[in-house]
Records
---
Amino acid sequence: MRLDAQHAAVTISGRDKGQLGSDDIMVVDLDGRALDPQLRPSAETALHTQIYRRFAAAGAVLHTHSRAQSVASRLFAARGVVRFEGWELQKAIAGYSSHDSVLELPVFANSQDMAVLARAVDGWLDAGRPLHGYLIDGHGIYTWGKDMPEARRHLEALQFLLECELDLIRLRGTRP
Ligand SMILES: [Zn+2]
């Protein structure tokens, strides 16, 4: 979560994400540097701080690795984007008021080098394309919101939409 214009709270590296308490959280600046040099932030901190830097209104960033996110990222990696059209739940994403819209969720190639991943995100944003979240191939999803409730709503909506797309592919027997 963003704390102020210069700082965010992130997870300490290596902690069990299913058992997080306040002792598992630390403060970094928006370049990912720890305020307490004894603590090492989560490996993907640079991707979180990138969102806070690029979106002044972002108050919370969430990253998860669900099965649907992972499978969809593989299926849509070649196309580079999942396009949601016609789903009522697209309205759960801030700024979308109708099913009659197109919501794009890009899929970026995975890398263990966060600078490479951050460049892919920058490339999308610098092209002026709307961005509310993204998949990383074979890995998971990032999404965010103005506060934690909105970030959670976006995560739940994108998870639901990805599950729906996967169901359609399965039922129709088509490939994306
Ligand atoms: Zn991850």
---
Amino acid sequence: MNVVATSGWHARAFGSAVADLDLRFDAGAPQRTITALLAHCLRDARGDAPLPGELTRWSLARRLHALIAVRLAGEPGAHEPLQARCELCDAEYEFDLALERCAEFVPDDAPLHWLAPDGRRLQLHLPCAADFEAWQARGMVDAQRLAAMLVDAVDDAPPLDGFELDAAWLLPLADAMAMRDPLNALAVDADCPDCGHRQSLEIELESLLLHAFARQQRHLLDSVLRLAQALHWTESEIVALPAWRREFYLDRMAPGATLT
Ligand SMILES: [Zn+2]
């Protein structure tokens, strides 16, 4: 199943091509993994993949939205299980996050125009993976300097060298950005099954999705191994099968399974 991921791009299910087995989810570089995953799973109308350089300039919001589309292409109506602890009665419980609802937040990548309290007009872009790489390469951790790198224009001119943001602007600026990008600061309501208390939980959607893809990949590797041992098919042949057929063969191979 193909799902419209983001303007002009269609997503296919992760795990439906043998190249998906090459992706590393444990390399400690999540943005690099996401770039590779999107390059594997997105295609334009002509069937071409996005270039990695292009993907690193997509906002994190747009990348996250595309990741959701890849997940939904593999499992329409997918839910991610989440653990929560009630802030009132301390009960631990599990609840499901419906990804289709998250996909409704379509990110707006257009430049953000913000009127600073001193009257200057700033134009900013939402953070993209290239910003993260630049921050890491320069060892930057100072929020003010990080945010200053997102400023593309001040009063319609490029910012001067050494341009700095006022520390007091950071919070209102972060709020303005969160309005454009609700997925990166997603909060959902959850009800405690024990006492009924409703609380708002912040969701780390990006790591939740990466964990789901890593789980899917481990399951696929396991299926490849078991089917290859039993049937002597190649890795590519096994991965090319629709998931339901792999599961069907595995079910029938299980000890005690009866053939009908
Ligand atoms: Zn409770």
